[in-house]
């Protein structure tokens, strides 16, 4: 009988089919042919665990006894077959401060830095659930959801008329925040755990859902938290969704946030000096920024560094 399984490699995903009476050695040879890799480890299951590929196991293990039907096999090269660029890290932050080794899982919890383009929250969440170019899609969905739930999202909650608020939110230069995270959690039926770098507080939007994604909030910016088996792997093979009963991943994500806190990877929004990038207005803190945005409809701000 033939069984099917999926492969996840640094270059993407593939499917393979093998006779269930084949040996583990036959399976490894098939993977070598599929991937052109010669030296690798194999992991499978949730949480990921190592598949024994020792010479003895290759001789004696039979595929049907390994219970791999329908599983995703993660292929981790021991030596990368091609050079990869250095991962992007924020200015002033060392690469080893944006990742945390997780030996028990055979990989790393890592900060995936989002573009600073006023759509960071949408990009962080959208990428975690597998959307490409998510900002415009998610903004439209949020706007429609608000207008479809006028009792829940009224002027008292939004701080503006729903039609005005949603028109502004559909613009690509408008920041998203707690309201949008709560709505996206409802739309996609997933918990969004947002870790605040300054306080290390975890805000959970959509508690009670089966799965979660994790994002990092640094005062005026959102980034994504992911798991990767090797720091050279592309973001396409990141793990970005976890079961909500997996508290260990939240512990690791908070440890990474604490690492970033020590190097001041956050903006103190209570008293930071902010500048409007449209009219050069200068104010202090998010309260002033919100007032300026309501009065002028300007929403592009940056922090001013005071030497």
UniProtKB/TrEMBL annotation:
Pfam families: OTU, OTU1_UBXL, zf-C2H2_OTU1_C. Transmembrane segments: none annotated. It catalyses: Thiol-dependent hydrolysis of ester, thioester, amide, peptide and isopeptide bonds formed by the C-terminal Gly of ubiquitin (a 76-residue protein attached to proteins as an intracellular targeting signal). This is Ubiquitin thioesterase OTU. GO terms for molecular function: cysteine-type deubiquitinase activity; zinc ion binding. It comes from Podospora appendiculata. Its EC number is 3.4.19.12. CDD domains: OTU_OTU1. Hydrolase that can remove conjugated ubiquitin from proteins and may therefore play an important regulatory role at the level of protein turnover by preventing degradation. One of its GO terms (biological process) is protein deubiquitination. It is found in: Cytoplasm. It comes from the Eukaryota. Residues 78-97 are annotated as: Disordered. InterPro entries: OTU1_Ubl (IPR048857), OTU_dom (IPR003323), Papain-like_cys_pep_sf (IPR038765), Znf-C2H2_OTU1-like_C (IPR057766). Gene3D superfamilies: 3.90.70.80, Phosphatidylinositol 3-kinase Catalytic Subunit, Chain A, domain 1. Residues 109-228 form the OTU domain. It is an enzyme of class 3 (hydrolase). Keywords: Cytoplasm, Hydrolase, Metal-binding, Protease, Thiol protease, Ubl conjugation pathway, Zinc, Zinc-finger. One of its GO terms (cellular component) is cytosol.
């Amino acid at each position: 009988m033939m069984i099917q399984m999926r492969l996840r490699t640094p270059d993407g995903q593939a499917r393979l089919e093998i006779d269930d009476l084949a040996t583990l050695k036959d399976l490894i040879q098939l993977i070598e042919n599929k991937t052109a890799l010669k030296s690798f480890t194999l992991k499978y299951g949730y949480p990921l665990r190592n598949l024994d590929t020792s010479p003895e196991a290759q001789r004696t293990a039979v595929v049907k006894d390994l219970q791999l039907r329908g599983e995703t096999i993660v292929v981790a090269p021991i030596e990368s077959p091609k050079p990869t660029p250095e991962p992007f890290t924020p200015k002033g932050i060392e690469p080893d401060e944006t990742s945390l080794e997780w030996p028990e899982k055979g990989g790393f919890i890592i900060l995936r830095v989002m573009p600073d383009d006023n759509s960071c929250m949408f990009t962080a969440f959208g990428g975690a659930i597998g959307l490409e170019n998510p900002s415009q899609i998610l903004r439209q969905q949020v706007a429609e959801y608000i207008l479809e739930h006028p009792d829940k999202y009224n002027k008292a909650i939004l701080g503006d008329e729903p039609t005005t608020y949603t028109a502004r939110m559909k613009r690509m230069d408008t920041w998203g925040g707690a309201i949008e995270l709560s709505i996206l959690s409802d739309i996609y039926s997933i918990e969004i755990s947002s870790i605040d770098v300054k306080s290390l507080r975890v805000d959970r939007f959509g508690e009670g859902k089966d799965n979660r994604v994790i994002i990092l909030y640094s005062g005026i910016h959102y980034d994504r938290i992911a798991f990767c088996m090797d720091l050279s792997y592309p973001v396409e093979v990141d793990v970005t969704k976890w079961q909500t009963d997996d508290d260990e991943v939240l512990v690791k994500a908070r440890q990474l946030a604490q690492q970033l806190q020590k190097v001041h990877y956050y903006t103190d929004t209570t008293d930071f000096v902010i500048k409007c990038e449209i009219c050069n207005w200068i104010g202090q803190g998010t309260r002033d920024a919100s007032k300026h945005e309501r009065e002028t409809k300007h929403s592009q701000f940056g922090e001013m560094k005071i030497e």
